[in-house]
Amino acid sequence: MLAFVTLSVLLAVTPTLAVWPVPRQYSTGATPLRLSPSFYISIKGLNSPPQDLQAAVTRTTTYLRNDKLQALVPDRGASSANAVRGAKALDSLSVSLTSTAKVRSISEEAVDDIEARVEGYTLTIPSDGSAATLTANSTLGLFRGLTTFGQLWYDLDGSTYTLQAPFNIVDSPAYPYRGLMLDTARNYFPVADIKRTLDAMSWINTLHWHVVDAQSFPLVVPGFTELSSTGAYSASQVYSTADVQDIVSYAAARGINVMAEIDTPGHTSVIARSHPEHIACFEASPWTQFANEPPAGQLRLASASTTNFTTSLLKAAAALFPSKTFSTGGDELNANCYNKDAATQADLAAQKKTLNQALDTFTQAIHKGLRDVGKRAVVWEEMVIDHPVTLANDTIALVWISSANAATVAQKGFKFIHAASDYFYLDCGGGGWVGQNPNGNSWCDPFKTWQKSYSFNPTANLTEAQKKLVLGGQHLLWTEQAGPTNLDSIVWPRAASAAEVFWSGPGGDIGKALPRLHDVSFRFVQRGVRAIPLQPLWCALRPGKCDLNA
Amino acid sequence: MLAFVTLSVLLAVTPTLAVWPVPRQYSTGATPLRLSPSFYISIKGLNSPPQDLQAAVTRTTTYLRNDKLQALVPDRGASSANAVRGAKALDSLSVSLTSTAKVRSISEEAVDDIEARVEGYTLTIPSDGSAATLTANSTLGLFRGLTTFGQLWYDLDGSTYTLQAPFNIVDSPAYPYRGLMLDTARNYFPVADIKRTLDAMSWINTLHWHVVDAQSFPLVVPGFTELSSTGAYSASQVYSTADVQDIVSYAAARGINVMAEIDTPGHTSVIARSHPEHIACFEASPWTQFANEPPAGQLRLASASTTNFTTSLLKAAAALFPSKTFSTGGDELNANCYNKDAATQADLAAQKKTLNQALDTFTQAIHKGLRDVGKRAVVWEEMVIDHPVTLANDTIALVWISSANAATVAQKGFKFIHAASDYFYLDCGGGGWVGQNPNGNSWCDPFKTWQKSYSFNPTANLTEAQKKLVLGGQHLLWTEQAGPTNLDSIVWPRAASAAEVFWSGPGGDIGKALPRLHDVSFRFVQRGVRAIPLQPLWCALRPGKCDLNA
């Protein structure tokens, strides 16, 4: 505990560390240090280090060589030329697991259940040129430490340097879940776009992949290939089993779990193309009476046949992903769709069940199916708040309609993920997509700024006991008006904002965060991610000068 | 006149033409037609056609070959395969000037004064495979016709086809000015980004280039190179004279005039880096008291030396551009900056002038300087509405603060360009850029949707006589939060919206426009412009199905 106290004291007097997310405990100095031209990263104490750890080391070395990011100061570092020239050279970073740690790959650890992940690390960089050291209790922690190490350096005429040595960083996340949701059903994203997003997500540990929806079914599910062959936008706009394995392994090697979602029983219109028998109110008109978005269509949840089909589909889809969690959705259920569906009405009458009773039976069945194959269910908040559905205690709820609903979910006793539209929806405020909508603004105006999500308090209105139910949070990109052309510019650097709230903890100062977020943007651009500028460059080079009242 | 009547009658019964902007008069049929594999475009009746016209023909042929745009229907055209296979083949498009037309290049005609441009054309494509014809009174008109021709075709398995022959199109713009403003001072854009924007702008005839501002001075002005060498963000973030010539000629060959702006007397802080004697309240703090944006700084308008300097600078800058118009800005003048500036107060006292009288003298001087080199002045609306400044009758005002101010400008008798923030500001609604601004929303929320700008009425609240003062309008991109990474996604296809209002005329139906705007987006992407999707692909393929109440 003494170390932490010391570091906390140092914190008050040391300059801002240009690292995102900001480590939980750190100190920096004021000594220039540069990377030796022969700088290397060595993994110590392991006879055969996991391949993905070796790859992460190689990737970090490549970033260090290729970032070529100039310091965000007016002269871009030129006035530090003498200091950099005269600086001690750092020859190496030594990476090692603590002696008690079990040796597992990053990829194995990344897909551990949410609460079981170990992501902390300790990074020490002396100012005298002696070897830097990175230690952790897990390869996942080592990976997080490498990510931090890779952000500490600037370029000046070919020298890779810092002015802030020595560094002492002791870090671990405030919350175990930091996610990003991507919808690949409204519009399709090639695998390369998803991989580029995963590269940018390195401190976000979950890709919540909303892979299919009413509009298209791009996921090729073994045993259910008719869904994608009839439901994908085209034969090339699919995710084959090889694509999924590629994405999952690419993600896992970067410390990211892919938590897939097949939304049920709503948002399933597209299934009718191959299985019309399972879908009620298929493309019914006017769609506003049958669904929140066109096209309408919901799984016939009162049908035993449809329930079996759905259970088998979910099990087959879940088998594609090593993730311990899998989302069955459950948002925006439309009662009118079922009220007008003769088949559902006949099923309900025969079973003497209400719609909610049928939903309970359906949900229990599909969740049991997932549990049988080792998966923990994730649901949107309505399944906890609005419907009297029996859920296993370990079910995770996604709070999306309003951040105010987190307290309601907590009262029900379920663990949950913050994903509220009023803070974290990346698509809001960019104009509405519904046709013949005169002014065309979006339903969740205004635009959710990075400042807004950065100000989020994950435990607002929660009791001490309820606070333990918060697993973390995430930004979300629904893609009605997004595609490969604007993916990066909508997501980055904004989605980094929530990642810091849930890694470093809430309560950060937006004024102090902005310069570091500029660093994120500029470094991302150097790495091929089309992050946007948050200010005129004049401001980005002069922290605070463009603040209100500066 | 008979031809128009016939076409107008036809209009009511023919399907939507997937062309943007929609021609003023047209008819289409229902006969399939494909381009012959040996299809060519020939320029007739000219011994040596202008080189830029030949280049435009070559470019159109390249687009026709490379666009490979599938029809936006659910089966992407597959069900038309037999019709396409059996279709007559179009061998050629014959392009010619009317016999009375004077032969000038597109580039010469593009930089004619605003009211003098001739952009109409007549395009006829028979359904029987006989040659299509394009005629116009100007090469600029021929270029517009080629742009239309290049949008009529889809791809199906390598065939380039339409299902809507014959076409009879008689077209000319409703307003002579359709612009797009780009700010290259808050953040810098490489020449390649500007050229890509010019390629996408083919029916927008003016790039209003807000090239410098308080934050940076990227324009290399002969005789004033110290401004860019001290004021550009870096030595590489400049527009050299060769760059400007490249941009200007690239634009002109595409029918676009580059109307540059050096904003005065405000927005000039950066000039103090090389000429501190000319700038009042340089980087004064708090900036909110001295400027609408940091950094503060305004030209010392009461100084004869500063007035001479500014006049010479504007003349030298204007000489870089063949445009007949040049903007001297004039927005957001801050009186407090001058009230607190001892030098300005001394000058005013010595001359026994009020600030407004000094502004009048200053403005008359700089405008006379421009007039002496053949340039017509353009100003932001404050110079007409807020300040008692003497302006030449041919001065053009840019209405930006509010569309409601158009009527006020019209009452003063000046021609004007619609550029109002409440309809046409592309940067609104994307979050604010000022630091320490807790929720961080933008000053001109909400986001201006394409539907909003499409609904704009250019002659609202104007008398019949005042209506003649409307030159046209434009979208504008201020780049506090824009750079090369999000230029395309902010601008396209949204900026096409105003272009149609001011070419085709106002009053268009957003429901009918949306499918054509999808075509713009998808065709742009094929041509390398990162336009965004406006709807889920499911909707884009099914016009009307995602309308409210569909």
UniProtKB/TrEMBL annotation, chains A, B:
Please indicate if the UniProt record lists Ribonucleoprotein as a keyword.
Answer: no
GO biological process terms, alphabetically, are: carbohydrate metabolic process; glycosaminoglycan metabolic process
User: Which Pfam families does this entry report, sorted A to Z?
Assistant: Glyco_hydro_20, Glycohydro_20b2
Q: Which PANTHER family match?
A: BETA-HEXOSAMINIDASE, BETA-N-ACETYLHEXOSAMINIDASE
Give, as one word, the top-level EC class.
Answer: hydrolase
Family named by the database record: Belongs to the glycosyl hydrolase 20 family.
Q: What is this protein called?
A: Beta-hexosaminidase
The UniProt record lists the keyword Signal: yes
Active site positions, chain numbering: 332 (proton donor)
Provide the Glycoside hydrolase family 20 catalytic domain boundaries: 175-505
Annotated signal sequence range: 1-18
A Gene Ontology cellular component where this protein is annotated is: membrane
Q: What is its EC number?
A: 3.2.1.52
What GO MF annotations does this protein's record show?
A: beta-N-acetylhexosaminidase activity
Keywords on record: Glycoprotein, Glycosidase, Hydrolase, Signal
Taxonomy of the source species: Eukaryota, Fungi, Dikarya, Basidiomycota, Agaricomycotina
- Which chemical reaction does it catalyze? Hydrolysis of terminal non-reducing N-acetyl-D-hexosamine residues in N-acetyl-beta-D-hexosaminides
Cite the Beta-hexosaminidase eukaryotic type N-terminal domain residue spans from the record: 19-152
